[in-house]
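Friendly challenge for the regulars: who can give me the C-alpha coordinates for this chain first? No prize, just bragging rights.
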Amino acid sequence: MSLVASKRPIFGLLFLYPSLAERSLPAARRHESSARRTAKRLRVKPDPSFASSIPTDQLRDNVVFNPPSSSPSPYQTPVAFLPPSDPRRSLLAQSHEHANPYAQPDKRLPPAIEKPREKKYHLKEAEIAEIRQLRLKDPFTWSRKKLAQKYDCSEFFVSMICEASPERKRQQQMALDDIKARWGNRRRYAREDRQKRRTLWGRDA
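First reply, four minutes later:
Bragging rights claimed.
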Protein backbone atom coordinates (compact mmCIF):
# COMPACT_ATOMS: atom_id res chain seq x y z
CA MET A 1 0.00 0.00 0.00
CA SER A 2 1.54 3.27 -1.09
CA LEU A 3 1.31 6.45 0.96
CA VAL A 4 0.14 9.60 -0.77
CA ALA A 5 1.27 12.91 0.69
CA SER A 6 -1.51 15.43 1.30
CA LYS A 7 -1.35 18.69 -0.60
CA ARG A 8 -3.15 20.61 2.19
CA PRO A 9 -0.97 22.58 4.63
CA ILE A 10 -0.37 21.12 8.04
CA PHE A 11 -2.20 24.01 9.79
CA GLY A 12 -5.33 23.20 7.82
CA LEU A 13 -5.50 19.77 9.49
CA LEU A 14 -5.31 21.03 13.08
CA PHE A 15 -9.08 20.78 13.45
CA LEU A 16 -8.60 17.01 13.74
CA TYR A 17 -6.60 17.48 16.96
CA PRO A 18 -8.12 20.29 19.13
CA SER A 19 -5.53 19.95 21.88
CA LEU A 20 -2.70 20.31 19.38
CA ALA A 21 -4.38 23.33 17.83
CA GLU A 22 -4.62 25.11 21.19
CA ARG A 23 -0.93 24.50 21.89
CA SER A 24 0.24 25.59 18.43
CA LEU A 25 -2.00 28.66 18.07
CA PRO A 26 -2.51 30.12 21.54
CA ALA A 27 -3.71 33.55 20.31
CA ALA A 28 -6.09 32.31 17.61
CA ARG A 29 -9.25 32.52 19.75
CA ARG A 30 -10.37 34.83 22.54
CA HIS A 31 -12.48 33.20 25.20
CA GLU A 32 -15.15 34.74 27.40
CA SER A 33 -12.97 34.43 30.47
CA SER A 34 -10.18 36.52 28.94
CA ALA A 35 -12.62 39.17 27.77
CA ARG A 36 -14.13 39.41 31.26
CA ARG A 37 -10.69 39.68 32.82
CA THR A 38 -9.70 42.47 30.43
CA ALA A 39 -12.87 44.43 31.14
CA LYS A 40 -12.29 44.04 34.86
CA ARG A 41 -8.81 45.54 34.58
CA LEU A 42 -10.18 48.53 32.69
CA ARG A 43 -12.54 49.43 35.52
CA VAL A 44 -10.53 52.18 37.17
CA LYS A 45 -11.79 53.72 40.38
CA PRO A 46 -12.44 57.49 40.28
CA ASP A 47 -9.83 59.81 41.67
CA PRO A 48 -10.28 60.69 45.36
CA SER A 49 -10.40 64.40 44.49
CA PHE A 50 -13.80 63.85 42.88
CA ALA A 51 -15.26 62.52 46.12
CA SER A 52 -17.17 65.16 48.02
CA SER A 53 -16.37 65.84 51.67
CA ILE A 54 -19.82 67.40 52.20
CA PRO A 55 -22.38 65.23 54.02
CA THR A 56 -25.05 63.62 51.91
CA ASP A 57 -27.90 65.61 53.50
CA GLN A 58 -26.21 68.93 52.52
CA LEU A 59 -25.34 68.18 48.89
CA ARG A 60 -28.37 69.98 47.51
CA ASP A 61 -27.51 73.22 49.32
CA ASN A 62 -23.97 73.57 47.91
CA VAL A 63 -22.32 74.01 44.52
CA VAL A 64 -19.10 72.07 43.94
CA PHE A 65 -16.63 73.49 41.41
CA ASN A 66 -14.14 70.80 40.41
CA PRO A 67 -12.34 71.77 37.17
CA PRO A 68 -10.17 69.28 35.27
CA SER A 69 -6.49 69.04 36.04
CA SER A 70 -4.66 71.58 33.87
CA SER A 71 -2.51 74.68 34.16
CA PRO A 72 -4.17 77.42 36.23
CA SER A 73 -5.95 80.14 34.28
CA PRO A 74 -8.09 83.09 35.44
CA TYR A 75 -10.70 82.09 32.84
CA GLN A 76 -11.47 78.79 34.57
CA THR A 77 -12.88 79.89 37.91
CA PRO A 78 -16.27 81.65 37.66
CA VAL A 79 -16.59 85.06 39.27
CA ALA A 80 -19.11 83.73 41.79
CA PHE A 81 -16.40 81.54 43.34
CA LEU A 82 -13.79 84.33 43.64
CA PRO A 83 -13.38 86.41 46.82
CA PRO A 84 -14.05 90.16 46.48
CA SER A 85 -10.34 90.97 46.93
CA ASP A 86 -9.14 88.42 44.38
CA PRO A 87 -7.02 90.05 41.59
CA ARG A 88 -8.51 87.64 39.06
CA ARG A 89 -11.72 89.66 39.11
CA SER A 90 -9.98 92.58 37.41
CA LEU A 91 -8.38 90.24 34.87
CA LEU A 92 -11.75 88.78 34.01
CA ALA A 93 -13.27 92.27 33.66
CA GLN A 94 -10.47 93.33 31.29
CA SER A 95 -10.81 90.16 29.24
CA HIS A 96 -14.55 90.68 28.82
CA GLU A 97 -13.96 94.28 27.81
CA HIS A 98 -11.50 93.28 25.08
CA ALA A 99 -13.58 90.32 23.96
CA ASN A 100 -16.67 92.47 23.29
CA PRO A 101 -15.65 95.91 22.06
CA TYR A 102 -19.25 96.80 21.21
CA ALA A 103 -20.18 96.72 24.89
CA GLN A 104 -18.75 100.22 25.26
CA PRO A 105 -21.31 103.00 24.67
CA ASP A 106 -19.09 104.94 22.21
CA LYS A 107 -18.71 101.97 19.87
CA ARG A 108 -21.06 101.77 16.89
CA LEU A 109 -22.73 98.48 16.08
CA PRO A 110 -22.42 96.94 12.61
CA PRO A 111 -25.35 97.57 10.25
CA ALA A 112 -28.30 95.23 10.47
CA ILE A 113 -28.72 92.63 7.74
CA GLU A 114 -32.48 93.15 7.57
CA LYS A 115 -34.46 96.23 8.38
CA PRO A 116 -36.04 95.77 11.81
CA ARG A 117 -39.81 95.70 11.77
CA GLU A 118 -41.79 97.70 14.26
CA LYS A 119 -44.82 96.07 15.81
CA LYS A 120 -48.11 97.77 15.04
CA TYR A 121 -51.22 97.75 17.16
CA HIS A 122 -53.48 99.74 14.87
CA LEU A 123 -56.30 97.27 14.26
CA LYS A 124 -59.59 97.88 16.05
CA GLU A 125 -62.29 95.43 17.07
CA ALA A 126 -64.36 96.25 13.97
CA GLU A 127 -61.45 95.48 11.64
CA ILE A 128 -60.69 92.22 13.43
CA ALA A 129 -64.34 91.18 13.08
CA GLU A 130 -64.17 92.03 9.36
CA ILE A 131 -61.05 89.88 8.93
CA ARG A 132 -62.83 86.95 10.57
CA GLN A 133 -65.88 87.42 8.39
CA LEU A 134 -63.87 87.52 5.15
CA ARG A 135 -61.80 84.52 6.16
CA LEU A 136 -64.89 82.48 7.02
CA LYS A 137 -66.87 83.58 3.95
CA ASP A 138 -64.28 82.85 1.23
CA PRO A 139 -61.05 81.28 2.51
CA PHE A 140 -59.84 80.57 -1.05
CA THR A 141 -59.88 84.23 -2.08
CA TRP A 142 -59.01 85.77 1.27
CA SER A 143 -55.99 83.82 2.32
CA ARG A 144 -53.81 84.80 5.26
CA LYS A 145 -51.33 86.50 2.95
CA LYS A 146 -53.98 88.66 1.25
CA LEU A 147 -55.58 89.61 4.53
CA ALA A 148 -52.19 90.54 5.97
CA GLN A 149 -51.46 92.76 2.96
CA LYS A 150 -54.87 94.45 3.07
CA TYR A 151 -54.86 95.28 6.78
CA ASP A 152 -51.08 95.87 7.07
CA CYS A 153 -50.38 93.15 9.62
CA SER A 154 -48.51 89.86 9.78
CA GLU A 155 -49.79 86.48 8.64
CA PHE A 156 -49.16 85.17 12.12
CA PHE A 157 -51.56 87.73 13.55
CA VAL A 158 -54.22 86.69 11.04
CA SER A 159 -53.79 83.05 12.06
CA MET A 160 -54.19 84.05 15.73
CA ILE A 161 -57.48 85.92 15.38
CA CYS A 162 -59.23 83.64 12.87
CA GLU A 163 -59.06 80.24 11.25
CA ALA A 164 -60.24 78.67 8.03
CA SER A 165 -63.65 77.08 7.61
CA PRO A 166 -64.13 73.33 8.21
CA GLU A 167 -64.55 72.81 4.46
CA ARG A 168 -61.19 74.47 3.81
CA LYS A 169 -59.52 72.36 6.48
CA ARG A 170 -60.98 69.19 5.03
CA GLN A 171 -59.65 70.03 1.55
CA GLN A 172 -56.20 70.82 2.93
CA GLN A 173 -56.18 67.51 4.80
CA MET A 174 -57.16 65.65 1.62
CA ALA A 175 -54.33 67.33 -0.29
CA LEU A 176 -51.89 66.40 2.48
CA ASP A 177 -53.08 62.78 2.46
CA ASP A 178 -52.58 62.68 -1.31
CA ILE A 179 -48.99 63.88 -0.88
CA LYS A 180 -48.32 61.32 1.88
CA ALA A 181 -49.66 58.52 -0.33
CA ARG A 182 -46.80 59.13 -2.75
CA TRP A 183 -44.13 58.86 -0.05
CA GLY A 184 -41.70 55.98 -0.03
CA ASN A 185 -40.83 53.80 2.93
CA ARG A 186 -37.75 55.84 3.81
CA ARG A 187 -39.59 59.15 4.06
CA ARG A 188 -42.51 57.58 5.91
CA TYR A 189 -40.20 56.01 8.49
CA ALA A 190 -38.35 59.32 8.89
CA ARG A 191 -41.59 61.23 9.56
CA GLU A 192 -42.77 58.61 12.04
CA ASP A 193 -39.43 58.78 13.83
CA ARG A 194 -39.68 62.58 13.97
CA GLN A 195 -43.14 62.34 15.51
CA LYS A 196 -41.83 59.92 18.14
CA ARG A 197 -38.99 62.30 19.03
CA ARG A 198 -41.44 65.18 19.47
CA THR A 199 -43.54 63.03 21.79
CA LEU A 200 -40.46 62.22 23.87
CA TRP A 201 -39.51 65.91 24.01
CA GLY A 202 -42.88 66.65 25.57
CA ARG A 203 -42.38 63.93 28.16
CA ASP A 204 -38.93 65.26 29.09
CA ALA A 205 -40.33 68.74 29.59
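The chain has a mean pLDDT of 75. Residues 185-204 form the longest helix (20 residues). Your move, everyone else.
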